[in-house]
Amino acid sequence: MAAPMADAVAELDLDALGVHLQATLPGRIAGPLSATLVGGGRSNPTYRLTDGENIWVLRRPPYGHVLPSAHDMKREYTVIDALAGSAVPVPAAVHLCEDVHILGAPFYLMELVDGGSVGTVSQAEALTPGQRHRLGLDLADKLADLHDIDPASVGLSEFGRPDGYLERQLSRWERQWTSSKTSERSEVAALLGKLRRALPRTRFPGIVHGDVKLDNVLVAHEDPASIVAVLDWEMATLGDTLADVGIMLSFWDVPGSPFNPVTKGLATLDGFPTRAELVDRYATRRGIELPEIDWYTVFADLKIAVILEGIHARHLQGDTVGEGFEDIADMVGPLLQRALELAETSSLHELRH
C-alpha cells in the first residue's frame, strides 16, 4: 500500500536536514523546517520545504528498492545547474547532498518556481482553445531549444555517450522489465525484437530530457500558454534527441486511437495541436526531417510501460508515497498493445515485421 501523505513527510528527518543545511548554506536558513509532499510521488518523491520565510523544492529517490542507474539525484542536479541561463527554463539549483546519512538517500534542493500545472485534463480544460494551441507549440519549441544546445557549451560534454545510445536504451529497459515485472507479457519481447530489427542510426545527438510531457512543465500564471520551467530531469543524458520527440508524441493522444493511460486524452482537447503539427513545428525549428519517427514513438510507449510496471512493483512492496497507485498496473497492457499496433501499421518495413 502507498504510504499516506503524513507518513511520507514523517520519513524526512527535518532536524537532521536542518542541521545539514545550516552548515552547508550558512545564513540562508531562517528557522525550523517544515515540509509537504508535492503530487503523488509516483517517481521521485518531491517535497515543498520551507523555513517560514523561504521556500524550496526537495527531491530524493523513491523509498525501497530502486533499479540500478534510476533516480540519479546528481544527474538531475547537474543538468538543471548547467542549463541555468539557457533557452530552456529550469529551476535554480540550490544544493546537492550525496551523503546518504542525512536523509537515507542522496537529495537535492532547487528554488520553487511560481507557475501553474497543466498536466491533467481538468487543468488543461481551464485554458482556452487558443491557449492550448500555443502551449502545445511552446512545448515543441522548448524541446527543440534543448536539443539545439551544444552540450560542451554548458559543461555537459561528459554527461553521456550518444554513440550506441539507442542500443543501450533497449538493453536497459529490457533489464528494467526483467527486474520489476509482476506478470508475464509477451508484447515486451515482440516489441524489443521489432525495435532491434528497425534500429535507426543516431543522426541528431544532444541533451535528452527523457520524460517530455505537459505534466513536467510549469506555465506562467498570467499566460498559461507560456512555459516557465521544465522539470523532472531524472532520466536526462546525452543521446539521440529524437527519443525525446517519441516521448512527447507518446503522451500526445490522438482522437480515435487508444489514449496513453497516463494522459487520458489530454491532448485531444479542442485547440491542442495535432501530433503532425508538433512534429512539423519541432522539425522546422531545428531545420531537420524526421522520417523514422514511428520507431521513436513505439519505443516511447514501451519505455513508459516498463516505468509504470516498476512503479506498480514498488507499490506492491509498500514503497510508494502518496496516492494514485491503485490503477498503475492497468496502464501497462494498453500501452504495450498500442505500441504493437503502431509498429504493425508503420511505414517502416522493419518495424512492421
UniProtKB/TrEMBL annotation:
Domain called Aminoglycoside phosphotransferase: residue spans: 35-258
Record organism: Rhodococcus artemisiae
Top-level taxonomic group: Bacteria
One Pfam family cited in the UniProt record for this chain: APH
Protein name listed in UniProt: Phosphotransferase family protein
PANTHER family tied to this protein: HAD FAMILY PHOSPHATASE (PTHR47829:SF1), HYDROLASE, PUTATIVE (AFU_ORTHOLOGUE AFUA_1G12880)-RELATED (PTHR47829)
